[in-house]
Specification:
UDP N-Acetylglucosamine Acyltransferase, domain 1, five-stranded parallel sheet, alpha/beta, about 325 residues, 9 helices, serine acetyltransferase, domain 1, 14 strands
Length: about 325
């Protein structure tokens, strides 16, 4: 039995060797496929920004925006300055590096002169860091809006730790600040990471006012040119999107307003779809569930579907 086992083991090793000998041919074909231009790749001496590094930047920024919530370090008045100093310095190093890579990639992609990418990356990173106190104050209003708008919330800690809407809004506000400063690629990676975790898709180019609350959140879509005012509340399954376009019209509207405007103090219930750049939902309006809108709604208006006829069969 022992000898037979050794024989079987030897056969397996020969089989493995035979299969492994086929790998160089596969590798050669993969290399050739990168030379055809038919597939997508980035085979270049200049690396792209790192998705893993950008995700780490999100979490590091959250540790600064919400000190004491997402770190294992106990923070008190004695070590708060040290904590911020360490976190902000490390964020600066990582963020400036990734921004420089994004700038260099854009320059090479558009065949532009690229000077001082590292310096520009550091300059933008410092501008972003200077906005962190303002972002903290803005997010505090979002947290209070969530608490005031959701009777199920037992406290602010619960919202910060567990509400997907707040996480998506936090990442959006980080990404939007970089978007405003002209950073390419990185803001979209950030918001799509939040999208993958929460089911909430907010384009970093959207403009969203203070005290914004997304309740539940799954399936929410907020397009690039959406304008949202202050104290707006939306529920799950809401789409603030663009009208479908023929293929030849896409390029003409790429930089135009294509998504709706939502004014102050509007409530949008679950399943609502509002489409088009000309649609304006007036202040203090309430849009009932499952409504489809492609036109403007005056201020102080309630929009509801007619009550459906229910059929009960015994």
């Amino acid at each position: 039995m022992v000898e037979r086992g050794h024989e079987q083991c030897g056969v397996r090793k020969e089989d493995t060797k035979r299969f492994r000998e086929k790998i160089p041919d596969i590798v050669e074909k993969l290399v050739e496929s990168c030379k055809t231009g038919e597939c997508f790749d980035h085979v270049d001496i200049e690396p792209l920004p790192s998705k893993e590094a950008i995700i780490d930047i999100i979490h590091r920024t959250c540790r600064i925006l919400y000190p004491g919530y997402f770190s294992r370090t106990r923070i008190d008045a004695m070590n708060l300055g040290y904590y911020f100093g360490q976190e902000v310095t490390q964020l600066f190093e990582s963020l400036s590096e990734q921004i420089a890579l994004a700038i260099r990639h854009e320059c090479r992609r558009h065949r532009m002169e690229c000077d001082d990418c590292e310096e520009r990356g550091q300059e933008i990173a410092i501008r972003f860091l200077r906005e962190l106190p303002r972002l903290r104050a803005l997010l505090a209003k979002d947290i209070r809006a969530a608490y005031e708008g959701d009777p199920a919330a037992k406290g602010y800690d619960e919202i910060i730790f567990s509400y997907p809407g707040l996480f998506a809004i936090t990442v959006y506000r980080i990404a939007h600040e970089l978007h405003v400063q002209g950073v390419s690629l990185i803001p979209r990676i950030m918001t799509e990471y939040a999208h993958s975790l929460t089911g909430i898709d907010i384009h970093p180019g959207a403009r969203i006012g203070e005290s914004f609350f997304i309740d539940h959140g799954t399936g929410v879509v907020i397009g690039e040119t959406t304008d949202i005012g202050n104290r707006v509340r939306i529920y799950q399954g809401v789409t603030l999107g663009a009208l479908s376009l023929p293929k030849d019209a896409v390029e003409k509207l790429r930089s135009k307003k294509r998504h709706p405007t939502i004014e102050d103090d509007v409530i949008i219930y679950a399943g609502v779809t509002i489409l088009g750049g000309e649609a304006v939902i007036g202040a203090r309006s309430v849009i009932g569930g499952n409504v489809w809108i492609t036109e403007s709604v005056p201020p102080d208006t309630k929009v509801f579907l007619k009550k459906p006829e229910l059929i009960f069969k015994p």
